[in-house]
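Batch manifest line 700
LIGAND: adenosine-5'-diphosphate
JOB: complex structure
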Amino acid sequence: MQLDTPLVYVKGVGPYRAEMLEAKGLVTVNDLLHYPPFRYEDRSNLKPIDRLAPGEMATVIVEVRGVRMPKLGRKNVGMFEATFGDSGRNTLVGKWFHGAYLANVLTEGMRLSIYGKVEFDPYKGDLFMMHPEFETLAADDEDGDASLHTGRVVPIYEAAGKVTPKMMRVLTRRVLDTVAPLEEFLPAAFRAQLKLMDRWAAVQAIHFPAEDADLRLLNSFRSPAHLRMILEEFFWLECGLALKRTKAKAVEGIAFSLNEQVREKIKAMLPFKPTGAQKRVLGEIAKDMAEPHPMNRLVQGDVGSGKTLVAAEAAIIAIENGYQVAVLAPTEILAMQHYAYFKNLFERLGYVVVPLAGSFKPKEKEKIRGYVEQGLAHVIVGTHALLEEGVRFQNLGLAIVDEQHRFGVMQRLKLMEKGERKPDVLVMTATPIPRTLALTMYGDLDTSVIDELPPGRKPVHTKHVPSSRIEEVWSFVGREVADGRQAYVVYPVIEESETTGMKAAEKSYLHLRDIVFPQFAVGLLHGKLPQADKEAVMAEFKAGRVQVLVATTVVEVGVDVPNATVMVIEQAERFGLAQLHQLRGRVGRGGNQSYCVLVTEKLSETGRERIRTMTDSSDGFYIAEMDLRLRGPGEFFGTKQSGMPTLRFANIIRDAELLEVARNEAEAFIHHPPSEEELRRAIHFIRENWQRRYGLVQVG
Ligand code: ADP
Ligand code: MG
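JOB STATUS: finished
ARTIFACT:
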């Protein structure tokens, strides 16, 4: 069997199972070898039932003594119970809700290995497990050798559809027994430096650990075999990214000159003294822009840190060199805000700024496209409508992309293809990205961080209030508004559908307008409103004529109203941490003390932790780390197109330190390869093995 043999040809797979394996991304023999168990059970040294203690997780080898479906009166409650015994005196009960299907699976006399949490029923005096995992131990043809499943440390895989964990074990063993030993590809120096295990030995040990393997290390993914495979995965990923950066630097771009005229213009534009961090980041950007290669830079900065101002300075450099600038925002509201912001800043410099969005009338769009194509507009600000065919630039020099993760990498590239020569790209994100995630997600970008807020900002006071005490919140809001301040009241939008959030917001709007604050001007903003209404409400709020703005999450990004000092977030438990932090960033933008009130219903354990994180900290990076920890990397960015590579062995949170190690080694290797031959071999390996599985890395 070859590594690239499709799994459908492996004995025991067949088309039906092959399809289910494929759904998990398992297509070839090689894929299966790189599909590690998520847990290990020591079935070599098991406790009998007599020695189980309530509260522990345990694996027990048992025989089914009896099964029943207990009834409540005459009603079937859908609970399935099996009584298990072994050679000792005591029995153990397994219980399954909605377990009726098990009546055909578990039959008397059957031998099983079961795994679960041991619990004690004080009324019956029984030990039991709720929904234990189990495997039948009968060795039929399908199951291969019984010694695979008992009497040893056993790998537990995630099932793939109807391919059970046990079947996965059988298939993996079969594949390991028939393929030729895997070749080693990691550079020898890297392996020697970190004393890494050989590749073939590591893959074997991950699936079927040696008898004396340390179960604790295995289950924490810290066995020597795990370390080897995790570091390997990170190493290739980082090599791919390093190659991509190198390649990008070799492309011909525009070398902007940063002369006295540019400096004068920037000085004339600046409405305030830039912070130290803003100056430093502009310096980094200007240096990139002066290079004859395209800039690919990510500017991270907490909400309100003044990224837009820095972007405006970069735009001046491009424009004074005779180039056009595109500004791309994720939503129409934000695009129009950026438009207003740039127009306002650039008016006195004599630049022409134009907006473009999907909702514009065809005639209007055409007119604006004309301005851009003929070079009459210096800056065009818009949504993804900018990326659509038909928008041509006379000479695009700089693309500024706000809130990058909402666009995805593909669109970023599409934008770059617009110019004659590759324009510089500046990505701004207000979502502070934990360093480890940034290293992988944006590993092909250089990064700048604005880590200082403009002077005079007071940290926002954050308070948690249960919804039963909402009246107190309203009286607080009333006092602030009576003092001349403004307030947001925000409702979550769940999933794609705006409807639930919109209904809640509408209801609250009527209640606040008619009953709670009849003396104030209350406005409503949600995604389903016509664009013109949205803009009108925002304009009224900006002008201070709307005092309380009830909204769904459309206000999440970018809204800048310094006089707003209160952010009330309803059903705060339904928001992610990053989102809460974004919302909170809408206040505290002026000189007045600002407040964020998190109103919640009943809280789960993680819900409580999330709220506590918010009341404890205003540091976006800390909050993002917590978010990543509480939700996991997959959900952190919410979208499939976020460009996150799928990792098989490594986990960016758990293995953050290993990522740093691998990154340094990869950089060194790519820039100072021990030999051309080794570098070629590595590039070949990345192409063969990484490009398909980890779509992000396109090398050569
Ligand atoms: P971000 O985009 O990073 O969230 P903005 O660029 O929108 O932040 O800036 C937030 C607010 O701070 C805006 O009102 C902006 O005008 C103001 N601001 C930006 N830089 C400074 C500065 N150096 N001094 C004072 N205010 C600033
Ligand atoms: Mg901004």
